[in-house]
Design brief:
With about 325 residues, the chain is an alpha/beta fold. It has two domains: about 140 residues, ATPase, nucleotide binding domain (Nucleotidyltransferase, domain 5, 2-Layer Sandwich), CATH 3.30.420.40; about 170 residues, 2-Layer Sandwich (Nucleotidyltransferase, domain 5). About 40% of the residues lie in helices and about 20% in strands. It has eleven helices and 13 strands. A hairpin with a 2-residue loop joins β10 and β11. α4 crosses α11 and α6 packs antiparallel against α9. The radius of gyration is 20 Å and the shape is globular. The two termini are about 20 Å apart.
């Protein structure tokens, strides 16, 4: 085996619907990927076995044995304890309370580092993406829900309980819609895709017309980001109205983040931004530009993420490198 192969890392992104693993060089170049479905409504053991299978598939594709791996980084949606290697709380998966690092370490026989997916995502953007070279940056990743991550003085900030930057659960509207966390009026409930879906369904029930009904054959129970993109392309008025309102909420959240953390940059990523960022991001930027407080003296750039799906696996490798080095 050559020296380059012996220095490879594995980054793993365990999401609610997919498990993406990647073989990555120390410089951040992706040499191979393996993508598969996350088992639904099953025990933790099955999910861990699927992660092992993803690693095996990745190594078969690249032709590199486990002995050629230096370390593994893994990212999970939810609150994690990276010291104990335990997933404390994660939605939509049976991994809460599970030590996920020990079985991975035994399987791979290398150091393993665990992180929250959005924290790891902004770490990836800080290493090789939109926030490269920026000392202070905040990431907001918008998908079904909304997650966040903070880089402070080039270091990932995790908080006292490794639960910092849960930006999606900032209260933006008193007595607003119920959020999955149990509170009302969270940013996630107002600007995440699930919140956008809720508002569209309510408007249709009240009599408003939308091309989404045709695009989805009348079933509006799930409206994915790509379908919202199609509706925007068709200039669907209801979709534009609902998403513009969500974008303003996201912009106001950025104003609050700017006041609290004073970052150089806020990076917007996630599935909804990837699909509809050209509509959402300008509204967010305009909302932030209207902030009269220190705007001209302390500007904060609002940019779209650059790494797409790869942000988390690249950030997971950055996390693993920190552990090894």
């Amino acid at each position: 085996m050559d020296k380059k192969a012996s220095k490879a890392y594995i980054g793993i992104d365990v999401g609610g619907t997919k498990i993406l693993s990647a073989l990555i060089t120390p410089s951040g170049k992706i040499r191979a990927r393996n993508r598969g479905a996350t088992p639904r409504k099953t025990k933790a053991k099955k999910i861990i076995t699927t992660i092992f299978e993803s690693i095996d598939g990745l190594l078969r594709e690249s032709g590199i044995p486990l002995s050629g791996i230096k370390a593994v980084g893994i990212a999970i949606p939810g609150v994690v304890d990276p010291v104990r290697g335990t997933v404390l709380v994660t939605p939509n998966m049976s991994l809460s309370g599970i030590d996920i690092v020990t079985p991975l370490r035994k399987y791979c026989r290398v150091p393993v580092m665990l992180g929250n997916d959005v924290n790891v995502g902004i770490l990836g953007e800080h290493w090789l993406g939109a926030a490269r070279g920026v000392k202070n940056a905040v990431g907001i990743f918008v998908g079904t829900g909304i997650g966040g991550g903070v880089i402070h003085d080039d270091v990932l900030f995790c908080g006292a309980h490794n639960a910092a930057a849960e930006i999606g659960h900032m209260i933006m509207k008193i007595n607003g819609p119920r959020c999955g966390c149990g509170n009302r009026g969270c940013l996630e409930a107002l600007a995440g895709r699930s919140g956008i879906e809720r508002e569209i369904r309510a408007a249709v029930k009240a009599g408003r017309k939308t091309i989404l009904t045709k695009l989805l054959d009348g079933d509006l129970s799930v409206i994915k980001s790509k379908i919202l993109r199609k509706a925007l392309n068709k200039r669907d008025l209801l979709t534009k109205d609902v998403m513009a309102t969500a974008a303003v909420y996201l912009g106001n959240a950025c104003v609050s983040i700017k006041h609290i953390l004073d970052p150089d940059m806020i990076v917007l990523g996630g599935g909804l931004i990837e699909a509809c960022g050209d509509f959402i991001v300008p509204i967010v930027q305009k909302t932030v530009s209207r902030d009269p407080f220190l705007f001209k003296k302390a500007p904060c750039r609002i940019l779209s993420a650059r790494l797409g799906d790869d942000a988390v696996v690249i950030g997971a490798v950055a996390l693993a490198q920190q552990k090894v080095l």
